[in-house]
Amino acid sequence: MTTFQRSGRRAPDQLRPVRITRGFTIHAEGSVLIEFGGTRVLCTASVEERVPPHKRGSGEGWVTAEYGMLPRATHTRGDREAARGKQSGRTQEIQRLIGRSLRAVFDLKKLGERTITLDCDVLQADGGTRTAAITGAFVAAQDAVNKLLAGGKLAESPVTGPVAAISVGIVDGTPLLDLEYVEDVACDTDMNVVMTGAGHYVEVQGTAEGAAFTRAEMDELLRLAEKGIAELVALQAAALKAP
Amino acid sequence: MTTFQRSGRRAPDQLRPVRITRGFTIHAEGSVLIEFGGTRVLCTASVEERVPPHKRGSGEGWVTAEYGMLPRATHTRGDREAARGKQSGRTQEIQRLIGRSLRAVFDLKKLGERTITLDCDVLQADGGTRTAAITGAFVAAQDAVNKLLAGGKLAESPVTGPVAAISVGIVDGTPLLDLEYVEDVACDTDMNVVMTGAGHYVEVQGTAEGAAFTRAEMDELLRLAEKGIAELVALQAAALKAP
Amino acid sequence: MTTFQRSGRRAPDQLRPVRITRGFTIHAEGSVLIEFGGTRVLCTASVEERVPPHKRGSGEGWVTAEYGMLPRATHTRGDREAARGKQSGRTQEIQRLIGRSLRAVFDLKKLGERTITLDCDVLQADGGTRTAAITGAFVAAQDAVNKLLAGGKLAESPVTGPVAAISVGIVDGTPLLDLEYVEDVACDTDMNVVMTGAGHYVEVQGTAEGAAFTRAEMDELLRLAEKGIAELVALQAAALKAP
Amino acid sequence: MTTFQRSGRRAPDQLRPVRITRGFTIHAEGSVLIEFGGTRVLCTASVEERVPPHKRGSGEGWVTAEYGMLPRATHTRGDREAARGKQSGRTQEIQRLIGRSLRAVFDLKKLGERTITLDCDVLQADGGTRTAAITGAFVAAQDAVNKLLAGGKLAESPVTGPVAAISVGIVDGTPLLDLEYVEDVACDTDMNVVMTGAGHYVEVQGTAEGAAFTRAEMDELLRLAEKGIAELVALQAAALKAP
Amino acid sequence: MTTFQRSGRRAPDQLRPVRITRGFTIHAEGSVLIEFGGTRVLCTASVEERVPPHKRGSGEGWVTAEYGMLPRATHTRGDREAARGKQSGRTQEIQRLIGRSLRAVFDLKKLGERTITLDCDVLQADGGTRTAAITGAFVAAQDAVNKLLAGGKLAESPVTGPVAAISVGIVDGTPLLDLEYVEDVACDTDMNVVMTGAGHYVEVQGTAEGAAFTRAEMDELLRLAEKGIAELVALQAAALKAP
Amino acid sequence: MTTFQRSGRRAPDQLRPVRITRGFTIHAEGSVLIEFGGTRVLCTASVEERVPPHKRGSGEGWVTAEYGMLPRATHTRGDREAARGKQSGRTQEIQRLIGRSLRAVFDLKKLGERTITLDCDVLQADGGTRTAAITGAFVAAQDAVNKLLAGGKLAESPVTGPVAAISVGIVDGTPLLDLEYVEDVACDTDMNVVMTGAGHYVEVQGTAEGAAFTRAEMDELLRLAEKGIAELVALQAAALKAP
């Protein structure tokens, strides 16, 4: 079996160049531009001193996410969801995933009755926008938490550890890490994996786009994902060390 | 470690009683009431001789799904989505999952330029509505295809094999097959698995509700799911054999 | 003039077989499947310990209804109203009618500050869905009230008596009781009548679909309706006597 | 039993002063301001040379209606439906009624493939807006038809005769013709009747607001309505005779 | 250069006949029909003893406006915004302009915590609907304020002076005052000017429909507008003097 | 009168530092990040080979704009318009203004039957987002046109010249050029001016936020705007000269 040839001679188990720019915009408590190759997502963390109805009076906080894509983030212009008057099913699915992923590393009791909203807006898309969003949103959330700690609003961090995400998939029989757009379109199986820094699973979402996939294929994909996420967690830590 | 005690002395790897009633309503080309214990979903398959815009002129058909829950299918009354004016993110996520799962066993070229719509409406909910919906929708779709074959509208079946789905999860450290509502609420990890009759994966969606889960836990859950789905596929076949 | 021939040799003044199944689903305080021949409507009564804004602090309760039709309850698939994002004028008209009809036999002061919501969902349609819905909703509402009485939440029943509804119409010059779908489509005049057990009118809605109708025709239709409703009220009482 | 005292010493079977002003605005093919006492409705008839999808290619035309109420047509300001983003159930019910009523006196084949839209906008409300709207819309529609005949677009009138509407009700035991607002609020039974010039029924919609009503009461109400409509039809004819 | 010939031999700097009818409808605290030639707008002022959230507890009141156009106010029938489910961008732009213009002559502190809503509904359109609306809304608002003063609810008027508006534009090189519809369609530059009775600017909105306009042209347009507004302010005062 | 002190010792007639970055994203035919001090707007130009209905078959093209603001572009998080389900009046007003401004320098006949959509998304807001959007959108549009010319799809440029926009206002009696957020909030009069490279007006929108403004004040503001726009046009030209 010949191996699928990736752009830029990327190895099957290699991430695209990842860049994490903190403080990309000035107003948000956390603001991170994350780039996975040509995919660029602006992740902001906003802290508000109130919680949604289902948490009122509980002493607990809430972490939630919203996701959007600028109309021309993609090859051809997409509808503006605000103009169309509703968010697509895909958008809602992604923002629910980001929210669950971030809550997985938050102790909501320690957060107190406040909300952190992660806005993940795709400025440019080249595959893997949801995994970039989760990975970047964690850094933005950590910055927001650090600001709360520094301001004396929190005595103890509600963050239990890092969380990151990556896509994996099988293209022409080759399992690949971190799919870019042309690979995503061509792949038979597409899996998004969200893991904690401790190497445990938060979300696994595997979908057979073409033929159903075997257990052996799944095992290989999970192995790739684990490798990629370990690298992303290291990159998050490095980015957060900078002043 | 003590094992979680299931209602009705159900074993951890045991399905709830499954009942598949074909021809539950009279107008649809396929109409199946599927019951997983207290969960009851009416799945109808409707054949229409037209396709959505992205398939027009392609010679291919389309298979899609819509999902709904009657307001009082649950313990407390939920909003009627038609009255609220929009489908929730959860509803959209589920109907997209059902659609993808059914398309995984359809050769759209062989279907010709027509659409099969699977409407899955939950009459009574007790956990596992989406997996019951997929499992029942396959039977309704097969009935609709059989009608097209019998009517001479199709020369050859576009169905490549059965598809079924089941939920698995970890409650109090015990991996369980086919979660009912109280187990679903209590579980740390919740996974929905969709597989073909050949034992290959169509979808795997695992979510850590509480603590992140380990690879060993995932392996155990996948093993349980495989067992359950094999049983469901047998039940589908038995139901379809009846006149 | 020859008389219009009804399916199954039904006489012009004869109801279709009516079946009332209480406890059809388990969660609602009242849950009734009512069948008028091929028309099947699931009516659930939900009790909630709050009232809408216009009744708050009044000491009075509220009774209201919502109506829906599963997309494939009919010969050809209809749009799902939740997906389209709004309820049709027809749906709103029907649910307002059901609500008014039920309130006509409720003493809202005796109900106390709580709401009973009647959800009437058509599983299968063959004409007369709104009249079946009203007739079944009364039984579900009575079951819910009985549960409140048994639980000590009400000292006295707020129900002043039964209410039921039937359609009548003129097809090919013949006045008919309880129109099924093919008759409904063919009729010149269509009338829905809602009456109390005491034989008084709650609603009369007559519409000339083709030629306008005379006073003599209306009198004949009212006579048929009165007969039908008396039979329905007896069937409701019989169903409610069962344990 | 003492008789309910009406404002301005109006007799129980007396209409309010009715005024029909043709040509109230200049752009529409028919434009009528109709006044039933303090109720003032602007009815315009617009002719468009196209039909809705269900009539395309049928050779038949269509007659339809839309209804609205200016926010401050009433004692207290109501929401503007355009701002709220949807029409209420009441609005839809009324505009469907107006449309059916007008179609009852139109031969759609003779109209040809064109649409007449009746816009009925309430400038000031004092009870009976829907019956005033129907009565005025007929005059506007007739004006539009006359213009089509005069312009040679129609060889023969599609109008089969006049149609008018009135409300009747029982207040404090007294049956009354043409309810104004304070009577409408106080009434036990409220009935809207739509009749042709030939004295046949197009619509009868009776509702028990309080106690259910008897057959004798209905007969009395129908008698009052018949009298009122005969007078309205004469007023329509007189208005249409003026140049 | 020949001068553009206006209908009815109107001079370039001449207003159309303006008519202001107070008390046009009976329920609103202020109700004015204003006519600029063929343009007729019903402006009602409604007083409500509450303020929107951003003013609650501030001790200040609020003045706001809504704008609508009846579907057949224009040459060809337009969509009913309530039926379409949203207000157009044009509608929102206009109602925001009316609201700002009126607030410019209100001391919100003196108004106290109440809201005056100006509903401006176009019954017939022939150009200049927004300027007629502002000019008429002021008269309606003044009437509402006078009622509050007379009723002892206000000790002192919150109105700081009159406000009025007019359109100006350049057609075929000729600057014109108060454009009617055919002029509006033909003009290169269109400007709406809102001024106080003291001759100061509240809003200036100039738009080049065709070629961009020069400073000299703008100066000429502003001169025309100033003349027109002075006349409108005099007409408002005269109308308000009548009982 | 003391002069208002601007941040960074900016002179009253001085623009903030302006930065125009072409090619900010890769997919759009034109993609410009424009910065007016802390205000950063991403403007993309998308070319599509179709026109809206009102231009079909006309041989003419169309130029239109959409505007959005990321939820956390501002000091406190705003609602996401896509989630709320509609664009605010402010958003619609701004996008209509951008569209008109760009069309003012396009010869739609020369564009041919294609559409250029300008998407202006605010990444960070500090006053003047609409004027930055117009100024940046022109550069993006010019880049898209250049691509059409280079690709041989256009023989001749449809662009008649540059267009740019700036805000001016009066704060504490001092007329200021290019208001930043704190100045915008504090100003009495706020004016947005759009001009061509030839120094002619495309749009003038002046609003008295507090007291109405005099003709002398308007003249001074227009003078400032003219100066600022001349500088912006030079900056656009310089940016477009770079490869």
TrEMBL record, chains A, B, C, D, E, F:
Residues the record lists as binding phosphate: R90, G128, T129, R130
GO molecular function ontology, one term from the record: tRNA nucleotidyltransferase activity
Catalytic activity, reaction form: tRNA(n+1) + phosphate = tRNA(n) + a ribonucleoside 5'-diphosphate
The entry's keywords: Nucleotidyltransferase, RNA-binding, rRNA processing, Transferase, tRNA processing, tRNA-binding
Transmembrane segments: none
Domain of life per record: Bacteria
InterPro entries hit by this protein: ExoRNase_PH_dom1, ExoRNase_PH_dom2, ExoRNase_PH_dom2_sf, PNPase/RNase_PH_dom_sf, Ribosomal_Su5_D2-typ_SF, RNase_PH, RNase_PH_bac-type, RNase_PH_CS
Domain Exoribonuclease phosphorolytic residue range list: 14-144, 161-228
EC numbers for this chain: 2.7.7.56
Signal peptide: none
Pfam families, per the entry: RNase_PH, RNase_PH_C
Function according to Swiss-Prot or TrEMBL: Phosphorolytic 3'-5' exoribonuclease that plays an important role in tRNA 3'-end maturation. Removes nucleotide residues following the 3'-CCA terminus of tRNAs; can also add nucleotides to the ends of RNA molecules by using nucleoside diphosphates as substrates, but this may not be physiologically important. Probably plays a role in initiation of 16S rRNA degradation (leading to ribosome degradation) during starvation.
Family as reported in the entry's similarity comment: Belongs to the RNase PH family.
Quaternary context: Homohexameric ring arranged as a trimer of dimers.
HAMAP family: RNase_PH
UniProt protein name: Ribonuclease PH
